[in-house]
Amino acid sequence: MVERVSDARMDALFEKVKNWGRWGDDDERGTLNLLTPEHTARAARNVVGRTVNCGRVLPVAPSVENPVPAQHMMILAGDARHGTGVPGAEACIDYIGLAFHGLGVSHLDALCHVFHEGVMYNGRPASDVMSTGATRNSVMAMAGGVASRGVLLDIPRTRGVDWLEPGDGVTPDDLDAACEAQGVQVGPGDILLVSTGRDARREAEGPWDPGHGLAGLDGECVPWLAERDIAMLGCDGANDIMPPNTNRWPLPIHVCCLVAMGVHLLDNLDLSGLAAVCEEERRWEFLFTVSPLQIQGGTGSPVNPVAVV
Amino acid sequence: MVERVSDARMDALFEKVKNWGRWGDDDERGTLNLLTPEHTARAARNVVGRTVNCGRVLPVAPSVENPVPAQHMMILAGDARHGTGVPGAEACIDYIGLAFHGLGVSHLDALCHVFHEGVMYNGRPASDVMSTGATRNSVMAMAGGVASRGVLLDIPRTRGVDWLEPGDGVTPDDLDAACEAQGVQVGPGDILLVSTGRDARREAEGPWDPGHGLAGLDGECVPWLAERDIAMLGCDGANDIMPPNTNRWPLPIHVCCLVAMGVHLLDNLDLSGLAAVCEEERRWEFLFTVSPLQIQGGTGSPVNPVAVV
Amino acid sequence: MVERVSDARMDALFEKVKNWGRWGDDDERGTLNLLTPEHTARAARNVVGRTVNCGRVLPVAPSVENPVPAQHMMILAGDARHGTGVPGAEACIDYIGLAFHGLGVSHLDALCHVFHEGVMYNGRPASDVMSTGATRNSVMAMAGGVASRGVLLDIPRTRGVDWLEPGDGVTPDDLDAACEAQGVQVGPGDILLVSTGRDARREAEGPWDPGHGLAGLDGECVPWLAERDIAMLGCDGANDIMPPNTNRWPLPIHVCCLVAMGVHLLDNLDLSGLAAVCEEERRWEFLFTVSPLQIQGGTGSPVNPVAVV
Amino acid sequence: MVERVSDARMDALFEKVKNWGRWGDDDERGTLNLLTPEHTARAARNVVGRTVNCGRVLPVAPSVENPVPAQHMMILAGDARHGTGVPGAEACIDYIGLAFHGLGVSHLDALCHVFHEGVMYNGRPASDVMSTGATRNSVMAMAGGVASRGVLLDIPRTRGVDWLEPGDGVTPDDLDAACEAQGVQVGPGDILLVSTGRDARREAEGPWDPGHGLAGLDGECVPWLAERDIAMLGCDGANDIMPPNTNRWPLPIHVCCLVAMGVHLLDNLDLSGLAAVCEEERRWEFLFTVSPLQIQGGTGSPVNPVAVV
User: Record's Gene3D superfamilies (chains A, B, C, D) (predicted)?
Assistant: First the structure.
């Protein structure tokens, strides 16, 4: 059973970890400023070379997990393959469309995705996100793509369970215990991935509505993340506990990471394959690459990140 | 001026480089079978750690370069940020939609994208690509993402020009000359990137309709690629010369790579940043990662590949 | 409780009512050929002038009634009203997108929408409907719009109930009884609308999944419809009973109307307003107009038909 | 050559024709309040019964006329007709999507579509149109559909030309001359359609970019329209002259109709068929019906209006 975090406590944590102005008043990249070629090169140096993706298959049919699925439609299928406009050429063409911030889609949250009392990262007003897109803090801050040291903390493994139940919370003690059990440390510029075992549970017990329950990080983890100066955070759930264990304070991890710290988030990854490879290699650090579609004014992007273990 | 390649010559090349059955009759991965962890680890070992993306900004307005632009629309902007359904939460949400096989979109071609006389890679009929998606050879063969050694061959640099003119062709001699000038070799499992200087020309001379003219690889390069057993091929144009320098033989690079060899293609990359970094580092090899959206039955994916030089 | 209709019975009815060739082998309009200006003028002559629409509000949020809702997104809202491209002009612009053949969308079925054993109206093969659209029997046969005499048969009124329960069937006796009770006859060129009281039930008992149960016309009504030579048929449900009261014979009304007779269908109308006005005026005939979007190769169109009572 | 209308003159006209408050401060229907059953019944009484549509075919390919075409994609074509989810049923299903306020799409403008100095009909602020849709003055004010007396004024016929050239303006004198030549009067509750011969010119001279030139109504027509208390206005062009013959005063017809008077507009109709039928019948009045899709918060709707002459 997760403890409730009081609104006053979250207010205090939010103020404590705020990075506004740390990289200048014009900064839109937040903790991506912590990335260095040296750190990336170090991460690359020791890889075994096994490539593992961390994204989900795009959901294209409505289901309990994905009430608003992605669209995938053929423009030219095999029956119309001559219709390309290039004489003699035979090709098939299709279309995809999606509102990617769904709980069944692996995606990146840009710093303009979330507000706290009408304000986003670096103190910008919500009105900077217009009906035509974000004028500040858009996903274009990530346009160059990211490759850095990634660390997976496998919480079910440390706790000795198959998965965390929906609604359960990962605490700072869980993070410390996982670091110790896995012999790994988290530091500046790292991309931290936290596995709650969502996909193991799904495989065993079937799909469920993630809006009704997902394990995630307790708000008390916020200072732990801030002290380590991570560059990005990812999770197999929504990063936040669903439903929240706060009172009126919304989505503590989203708000403290995206708004206060300027930490981009990766939501709804599938970390089961990566956890298995890490276990086999007895090695929970790797080169992690994530690269959004370059959507001007976008609030994020669907992604399929790749770890090279 | 590019020479014309006869239809009979292309017919012969197609037969010569065919990999059908090489990895079994059920294979859908083609030359991705050549990827090995060892090769990837070797590529990672020597990187300087500089991260460079190779994708274009998604075109969202109609233009001469992109007659059918991507859609980007806000579902919730700042004025409606409370409409998330999560009480107290404030967020913005958007939608993207696109037919990604456009000449202005950086994208991956799956092996089902192109046919030759009604047949695709490993001898499968066009009717396997239905109005509901491809039942074989879809982009899901790439779902795991790819990280391997990448090599950039910078043709304008070797030729001593700023760019290749639209309609010009890269020959096997060009490829050899670039390898020699850059001190690099291309071999099994490599991802070959060929720069024609498209973006340098665009910057100097402005946008043009890529369908009316793009530099690309001459059909005579096909055996060169096959002998080296590359895993993937990418270009800042359409890989093929536009308009084609064949007679009735359509898109020789697309057809020989996707259909005959099973080589996935990356079209319309932006290689200008990568070329600049390679020049600075005097090093034209790197760790290259590309990861499609996991679209079941899809013919490809928009991508924003990342090179770690 | 509805009786089951045997597959053999449906096979016989299908053959009996077939209009293939009746208006020539090239015909794509089916019973729209029965429309005459005289009939329309007669219908118009006696109207009171009350205008009533028969379409539903487009569902834009996922719900039990509409698992795949329509998309409605603003391109320019008030915050971006100056972005029109016309200097000085201030405007808002939006986008709609939908798969209109849903059970929550009022729509017209073109004659290419349904097949019987791979064949559609006038004996054309399913392969005439390609991934790029229908090459025959598309909604363009209706492009000109229809205005004709409409007749509403209000089955709950005749039966003395508030509504028909989901899964219940309207029989030929019901149709005859309604004609007699309402003092109306149905004949050549008429557009027949059959109310099952779906919206009265919805208002009283709340939304339900229409795929799990909708009242509709029993397959035995097919000869009744054919004898009267109606031009179109509409219903507040799916015209067919859901789930079907046949065994392996699919959607008898859809198949016999669209495929055998060439009768265009209107699905999921909201007839509650029209029924109320008809009751007030003691008059169940009117001028009925329906006009699809002109979608080349389309299988139908969302519509909002208008009755002038 | 059209004369220029001064900004001061337009300012004065705007104030002069303003209907704000005329039907109460809560009104969202504007001159639709002028519709009466009696007027509709009178219009219906004398029809010959010929049905003519006034909408264009949806443009689904990019062209000079339609830079952002509509989307039309098959979800199930003939090759996948068994995929309906209803056992045994065989059907085809498609999708349409469009930003309907294009110059190639016949559409209805809701009263929230246009602003004048940040304000729309009945004095409401632009901020009432949010990224989630219009909270006031949306197309839902038209949800019930409209059937009323329609009058076509055929300006090329009166002038004795085949068409008006792009950029030309229809003046109050033109309107008077057409009324006299056709023996028709325009009055309260009427739907006025003004033909400029756009489609005759298109047929003779081919497509052109309508943004670069369309004949339309001169701003001086505004008092003429207001004095007659028309219910709606439609045109085969954009109603306004393109490019405008004002200085800084944007789109005088759009602004004075939608914002000041509360007159809904029909843009880009195809009136060539209607003009031909009217000529044949020597009768330029008819029953006119137009019915939008019921889009909550929508700024308009694609339409295919039907005239019963």
Answer: Putative cyclase (3.50.30.50)
User: Which residues touch C248 (CB under 8 Å, ≥6 apart)?
Assistant: C7, D87, D88
CB B220 within 8 A of CB B246: no
Which residues of chain A lie closer than 8 angstroms to B299, CB-CB?
Answer: 74, 92-94
Q: Which residue has the tokens 């005579």?
A: B220
**Which of A68, A83, A132 is nearest residue C132 as measured by Cβ atoms?**
A83
Q: Chain A contacts of B145, Cβ < 8 Å? A: 51-53, 55, 304-306
User: Coil, strand, or helix at residue D116?
Assistant: strand
Among B67, B68, B132, the residue with its CB nearest the CB of D80 is B132
- Contact (CB, 8 A) for A128 and C80: no
Tokens of A147: 């490759």
Express each pLDDT in B71-100 by its tens digit.
Answer: 999 999 999 999 998 889 999 999 999 999
Ranges of residues in chain B with a pLDDT under 70 are: 1
For the complex shown, is ipTM > 0.85?
yes
Q: Which member of C86, C96, C244 has the closest CB to residue D295?
A: C96
D113 CB neighbours in chain C (<8 A) are 91-93
The model's pTM: 0.96
Contact residues of B toward D, CB < 8 A: 62, 67-69, 74-80, 83, 97, 127, 130-132
At D1 the pLDDT is 58
Residues of A within 8 A of C62 (CB-CB) are: 62, 67-68
- Residues constituting chain C: 309
Contact D74 A74 (CB under 8 A): yes
Alpha-carbon distance B144 to A277, whole Å?
Answer: 13
Closest approach of A30 to chain D, Cα-based (Å): 27
Strand partners, D65: none
Average pLDDT, chain C: 96
**Rounded to whole angstroms, how far apart are CA atoms C18 and A272?**
57
Chain A hits for D77, CB-CB cut-off 8 Å, are 77, 79
> Which positions in chain C touch A132 (Cβ < 8 Å)?
75-76, 80, 83
Closest CA to C83 of A283, B31, B61: B61
**What is the spatial distance between Cα C92 and Cα B63, in angstroms, rounded to a whole number?**
22
Compute the count of residue pairs across chains B and D with CB atoms less than 8 Å apart. Answer: 39
Within D186-271, residue ranges assigned H as helices are: 198-205, 222-228, 252-254
3-class SS letters over C52-110: EECCCECCCCCCCCCCCCCEEEEEECHHHCCCCCCCCCEECEEEEEECCCCCCCCEEEC
Sign of CA dihedral C277, C282, C286, C292: positive
Closest-CA residue of B relative to C79 is B79
Q: What is the CATH number of domain B7-58+101-308?
A: 3.50.30.50
Query: How many angstroms separate the CA of residue B75 from the nearest CA in chain C?
Result: 6
Q: Where are the domains of chain B?
A: 7-58+101-308, 59-97
Q: Which site among C60, C64, C128, C131 would you substitute to test the A interface, given the most A Cβ atoms closer than 10 Å to its Cβ?
A: C131
3-state helix/strand/coil string of chain B: CCCCECHHHHHHHHHHCCCCECCECCCCCHHHHHCCHHHHHHHHHCCCCCEEECCCECCCCCCCCCCCCCEEEEEECHHHCCCCCCCCCEECEEEEEECCCCCCCCEEECCCCEEECCEEHHHEEHHHEECCEECCCCHHHHCCCEEEEEEEEEHHHHHCCCCCCCCCEECHHHHHHHHHHHCCCCCCCCEEEEECCHHHHHHHHCCCCHHHCECEECHHHHHHHHHHCCCEEEECCECECECCCECCCCCHHHHHHHHHHCCEEEECCCCHHHHHHHHHHCCCEEEEEECCCECCCCCEEECCCEEEC
Judge: D49–C51 Cβ closer than 8 Å, yes or no: no
